[in-house]
Write a structure and sequence with these properties.
The structure is a single chain. This protein has 58 residues and is an all-alpha fold. It is 53% helix and 0% strand. It is built from three helices and no strands. It is rod-shaped.
């Protein structure tokens, strides 16, 4: 049988893990950074010398 201290600490850990569970699930499922376009036409126009495919450079 566990000591009273072990039981109390375990219960506190469980409460801590469950606190804000909806927020934690939302962050895990959707992330905290909004999606944004990486390869826009403006970005491609500003970097004409970079390779466009496969990492090959001419």
């Amino acid at each position: 049988m566990s000591s009273s201290t072990s039981q109390t600490e375990y219960r506190r850990k469980i409460r801590h893990d469950n606190a804000g569970r909806a927020r934690k699930n939302a962050l895990q499922n959707h992330g905290s950074t909004p999606a944004f376009p990486v390869h826009t036409p403006e970005a491609d126009a500003n970097a004409p010398h970079q390779a466009k495919g496969g990492g090959k450079q001419d």
